[in-house]
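Margin note: ligand = benzoic acid.
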Amino acid sequence: MTRFEYTAQPARIVFGPGRLDDVAAEVARLGRTRALVLATPGRAAFGDRVEKALGDLAVGRFDGTAMHTPVEVTVRALEELQRVDADCVVAVGGGSATGLAKALAVRTGVDQVILPTTYAGSEVTALLGETENGRKTTRTDPAILPETVIYDPELSADLPRPIAVTSAVNALAHAVEALYSPDANPVVDSLALDAVEVLAAGLRRLADGTDDLDARSDLLRGAWLAGTCLGVAGMGLHHKLCHTLGGSFDLPHASTHTVVLPQAMAYNADAAPEAMARIAARLGVPDAPTGVYDLVVAAGGPTSLRELGMPEDGLDRAVELATARPYPNPAPLTREGMTELLRRAWAGERPPSGAPLASAVAELTDRVRRSFDATANPRLAGLLADLVGRLHGFALDHDLRQDEWQTAIDFLTRAGHITTDVRQEFVLLSDTLGVSSAVDLLTNSRTPETTSSAVLGPFYVEGPPELAQGTDISAGLPGTPLHVDVTVTDTDGQPVPDAPVDVWQSNEDGFYDVQLPDLDGPVLRGRLRTDADGRLRFWSILPSEYPIPADGPVGAMLTATGRHPYRAPHLHFLIDAPGHQQLITQLFVRGGRYLDSDAVFGVKEDLVVDFVPRTGPTPDGRDVDGEWRELEFTFRLRRL
Ligand code: BEZ
Ligand code: FE
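Resulting structure:
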């Protein structure tokens, strides 16, 4: 059973091109009137734009933000904040601008509005890293979380490609590590996987030169989603390693992330197979670590610590530092493992693929799919190619072995052997896997004004006996008498006369006539026709719950999975009126057993109806001793 904790980080997000213009409204929304604008020295133009958009609300400006949020810079900014008597800060820039805003907020409680110009993601976390006398400290505090973030892709549109690439991979790392974090939970997983997908899409567009505002918008959205993960899930090896390398060898932050991420992923791949498989699926590659490496190469990002200026003789010390203190990580941290990881990262080698066979399978899949290229019917070609892709993907994802596949083949062979004219094990398999109901939904549920359909089931027999209205289809079999009084109309309520209605149901013991070879059938089935008012009346017996045939391979599957074989009590109808869409459905007995665990997933709420208990005189004067039931229902068909 899933158990998790998730604390949402309450921030207001304003997203879209041109949203910088909303900055004054956002400050006003916070009830603030005096903003100190924080900008990055080399990007003063952004500070100017924000100041202009703020108008009178801007009361000061500080352009001294610096990497790693040095405390001496914060002290100077604090003096400025107090001098101009600001009640909020508006920061425009990358991680440094956000860092300074947070450092001011945690000291003074001022509100923050952040306009990120990179993909740092820190603007949606309550974490703050500061440096003082060369030492980095981090802390977390609700006051650190910015109140409002304005994501305007125009602000990162001219971020030079090399910086955009490393910044996006930095964001990707938040999503990746969130997926195997001890704090992972379904909410974070969804955010992280979406982040992986959009960041990869954006990175591909940086790689192939189709980079535009849409691509930058993807990257920014990915950065936000990934930053949200960073705020709530603890990070592992990759982040600790980057922190250590950055601090000890003065390496550039985002570039270090870009080099280390594929190597750290490869290190953790065997210990976090599910996370890797999900990442690979979202990246659309067979193996996640090499997929990320290849993406970085394609986008022109750095792959080696050597090119970032790390000395080779620093590797031993890096290993020392990286293994000095334990922390949560999927794979245990070993000296040998870390030595190999750092050696590869330093040299920029492609990480070992966790799925050496994956590319061989992918190549095979491709060949099989292409074998359908000449198919004349495009629908058939598409369905087959996709089916092959999914089956191969299934085999790959589960590392399917020959004996397991043989078990599946044997299962289908037994299904074939047990299938006869009156026993359809493949339909039963489709039913019990919910495929019949899924296809039924897709085929028949597009018109809400018509009566819902339900699966046909294996016990329908073509051409049932024609019976007159008022017939008792149970032919005297034991059971509670049931008087059925149904009407067939179109969706405007107009009666459909002379409509052939096939009905069938099981006996009191749960068997259909076709299951009882000794029975002098057909019984409990027939074809009746509606009268001039679209009405149809006949007698039967109250249906009871029954097990679907469980003596074959499908029954073995149910037993192996701890499922019961019962169907909720129901009566089948097939209405095939000329000029109207055919309706195949079932009416379920309200209060019956297994309504919420029907073995074939066939129950729909609007098909659960009252089979009303009655005593005394019957509608057609038939003599009934004791209780009988009455079913009234109107079927609505779509006119063709
Ligand atoms: C039936 O209702 O007759 C039925 C439907 C699906 C599987 C087995 C039986
Ligand atoms: Fe049935």
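Residues 457, 459, 567, 570, 572 surround fe (iii) ion (ligand 2) (CB under 6 Å).
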